[in-house]
Amino acid sequence: MQWVWVVLIASIRNNSTVAIMTKSTYTRPGVAAAARLASIESLTIWKRTESQYSDMISEKGGDKLLSLDKFCDELGEKLTGMTEPFISEEELFKVVEWKFAKGKPRYALMKYLKANGEDSIKKASREAFASVDEDDIQASINKFCQLKGVGPATASAILSLYKPDLFSFMDDEVIECLFDGKRGYTLKIYMAVNNKCAELATTLGSAWTPRRVGKALWTASRICASGGDDLTVGEDNPEKDTKELTTVKRESSTKATKTSKKRRTR
Length: 266
Known about the structure:
Helix content: 40-55%
Order of helices and strands: EEHHHHHHHHHHHEE
Number of helices: 11
């Protein structure tokens, strides 16, 4: 796989820098648009892209996926209102159904998920949410991963509903966009991707969360993949609205950032 650019987004507002490496090819359709969006600091482009999220959910999975997406939002509201939050077996299955419909189905996992039982799911989820309240992201993921058939991606789907300011959802498109290596679903990869989403959220402003950033990146991918109006290219993406630098390597400095180009193969 060839890596062709490293893009540094320099935030004038908070002096932060987010490094995004774009690739010559992606395995998921439309990810190039998500990578372009990640290199843009224009709130106008981000908001206009995000505003098409529901349309892209409908395009991807019709009324069924729209209903599941609404269920997930309502589950998040329910969890944040609980003193000692937990999820039921039925709620876990519906979140997984949403995850499969939004991304790539992995039905072989269902037999493992069904082997957990109601009590195990409630116990593991209580422990995971308790770790979230201590701001321990890795522990929260690991608590959910005690359940059969639950990995970091499924754990992130649930936890991002409860604490969107701490967790992004591990969409395939978001992983490919933000992770510098081959797409995978390990805790290490999730932490790298989640950190990038958190950095982008900080750059975009206080109204943005890691989960919201992930949703916008997924939307950009789907718009491009479905042949929609890709706001990350052309006249809708004026250079004067962005603070975008292209460089050959990752570097963050308080000094002026130099721009160059590099090519390497991995």
